[in-house]
Amino acid sequence: MVDLSRKISESSEGVAKRDADRDSLFLKAVLRFPASKEEGEVRIRNLSAGGLMAEAPVQVARGEKVELNLRNIGWITGTVAWVAEGRIGIAFDQPIDPKVARKPVGQGESDVPFYLKKLDRQEDSKKRNLRPI
Hints:
22% of the residues are buried. The protein has 2 helices and 6 strands, in the order E-E-E-E-E-E-H-H. With 133 residues, the protein is α+β, with helices and mostly antiparallel strands. The protein has a domain at 23-105: Thrombin, subunit H (Beta Barrel), CATH 2.40.10. It has a 6-stranded antiparallel β-barrel. The termini are far apart. The chain has helices spanning 98-102, 114-128; strands at residues 23-32, 39-47, 51-55, 65-70, 74-84, 87-92.
């Protein structure tokens, strides 16, 4: 990954209003700048359908286009809405389902291959057929 240090050209003035409830959480994501393809890891602290707040070791300008790779969602595009010390707010270009990003990886029913489900059922049936001692 590339160092995300960049020149600050605007401060945190003009913070955008929130129009959706945000859930507090701790997720990691990859932040990328489309113009340069520089990318690095950020920590998401709250998330809603329309945007997020992240801690990031990056200095960006308000209004700059970014892309984020969110767990269980993939790459999404957005715009930097505000910048504060060590934190940035990003407004998504398209709404997302924040519950999908919160879902633990590998916990979904569809993540288990059919052949493993079949083995689990066979093991369960063997256990039920055993006599108690």
